[in-house]
# Entry
Amino acid sequence: MAENQQVAQVTAPSLVGRAGGESSGGGSFGSIEIDTGSGFCHGVTRAIGKAEEELQQGQPLYCLGDIVHNSREVERLSQLGLVTIDHKEFSQLHDAKVLLRAHGEPPSTYSQAEQNHITVVDATCPVVLHLQDRIRREYESDPSHTRQIVIFGKRGHAEVLGLVGQTEGTAIVIEKPDEASQLDFQRDIALYSQTTKSLEGFRQIVEYIREHISPNATFTYADTICRQVANRMPHIREFAARHDVVLFVSGHKSSNGRVLFGECRTVNERSFLIDSPTEIEASFFDPFPHSIGICGATSTPKWLMELCRERVQEILKDVNISSAL
Ligand code: SF4
# Structure
């Protein structure tokens, strides 16, 4: 079996006869595949590993913001003792240990920690740390700050706040390619990207700036999109296209979840975004699918996709879909 395939045969006696040619004498007619290419990226795995390691020592541990954009995983870690706090609570905390998640933080967070005698457990993803470093050096290399540092990213997103913080808040954030028209093309531009943005959007922005930049100004760009996300796009499209129904498991706050789910929808309109097994509805499986694919974002835990598979099996076994609709 290919590495990216975990297939479970499903038997649904009440539905035999609705699955066309797949139905066999034993009632086995469908399959559920969990995409093993989905799930935590390296940065998130590392941050959760650090949290678990610290929690094992039995000391109180705070996390600045949700450790991952998945409420189920946050809940699991909170049961182990991880306390999630926001920036306001962080500013009032003293003499404590705080984990900084994979998204990273601006320099002001580190200064605040120092002032309040907070021990930082820094779980910023190395890819993000490297990007922060590049942006800081870009900013410092232009003491008169005439160059526009532009970040293709989501305004207010934790990673983007961390990146903008490297420029003392002066970087310009653009969320969509059409916002590039607001830049000043008479001045130099240095373009970067949040790690989870789409490659296509980035290419469009590069193209637009190239076409409009004044001959008296310079334009440099760095494709800083993380391949842990970008490489998943062709894979997830292929995965979604070969199943009749796709369940995409992701927290509603996950940026890359939205992007990857969008990719599923472009190739399979029977793709459903769910946060947990309780959101799976019997109506998803009408007309009855020959195969069901379960996949997710870089913030989706494997155990949650497994629970979704169990829930699908329960629904298909116990519910007569025609009467449930
Ligand atoms: S998506 Fe990439 S940059 Fe972001 S946390 Fe994961 S590995 Fe790091």
